[in-house]
Design a protein that fits this description.
185 residues, 9 helices, mainly alpha
Length: 185
Amino acid sequence: METVSHPWPWYIAGPLIGLFVPALLLIDNRQLGISNNLRHICAAVAPSDVDFFCYDWKKTGLWNLVFATGVLVGGFIAVQWLGTADTIAISPDTRAALVQLGVSDFSGLAPAQFFSWPRLLTLGGAVSVIGGGLLVGFGTSYAGGCTTGHAIAGLSDRQPASAIAVFAFFAGGLACNYLILPLLF
């Protein structure tokens, strides 16, 4: 007998995430975030004379590395054992907008016309990956954290800087979606 799994509804998953972060803050003053992990990995794997990487990464970064590993393992488990073969449900308006950008295959989790090795070798693909990577790297460094850290942990800790960062992330995302992506694709 085949069992069909469904994602948890938003009204269960959202409050669980919302309660998890304050619990971490209260129990052990832990911040939830992912953006500093590249720095921790560089400090652990390739210690150097660069001041930015000279710190006790085991004391400050081990928790974040465990969290990042959990994200990867959780994603693998979700895809392998909890996912369904159903097509991703998107609205007709979104589908029409993606068709205008050249998407014709809606069978996977992400459109192959945007996310594939052949697409990366085009000018638009290279600009979006390299430019986007630089902007995300600079933005998370400048903002002192990523969207996860600010939107979930920072807002639950009532940090005004996180509210400003989250607003800026969303404004930048909307601007890129409506102004830059149509030029690249």
